[in-house]
Design goal:
By secondary structure, the protein is mostly helical. Helices cover 65% and strands 9% of the residues. A hairpin with a 3-residue loop joins β1 and β2.
Length: 140
């Protein structure tokens, strides 16, 4: 039996972008307010899961051909490298650095190595969550 899911699919496409951009906002706001890589990654995963629910797993794989195992590995490497880098400078593990820069269009902004670590956490959370969802979704 063929179902008519036009309304849910149309709505899911719009809501996906709302959730995804909100997850980027939460990720970027995480240094000064609640949020960060973990919560941003969970929101991104929930946006992708919404697409999986509205369409199906194979359709979403065609649209987003991401190997989530590699995404997890890249995130772990980025987080570990950011945490371990200060040891090569004679500083303790997990020492973060920051400075203020004058960026075009944005003005004076502070840039942190904690942002790189949070990027790694974000990638790990999206990778692991989506690997679990895909594994559960593939079971017959």
């Amino acid at each position: 039996m063929k179902t008519n899911d036009v309304i849910i699919q149309f709505t899911a496409k719009i809501v996906f972008f709302i959730i995804f951009f909100f997850s980027i906002h939460i990720f970027l706001a995480g240094h000064y307010t609640p949020g960060g890589g973990f919560v941003g990654g969970l929101l991104t995963s929930s946006a992708i899961v919404l697409l999986v629910l509205a369409f199906d797993l194979n359709t979403v794989r065609k649209v987003l051909p991401i190997n989530y195992t590699y995404l997890t590995a890249i995130g772990l490497l980025l987080a570990f490298a950011t945490a371990a880098f200060p040891m090569f400078l004679g500083k303790p593990f997990f020492t973060h650095f920051f400075d203020y820069f004058d960026l075009p269009l944005l003005g004076k902004q502070s840039l942190h190595t904690a942002m790189l670590f949070d990027s790694g956490v974000y990638l790990v959370v999206v990778g692991v969550t989506m690997t679990i969802i895909q594994t559960i979704g593939e079971d017959e």
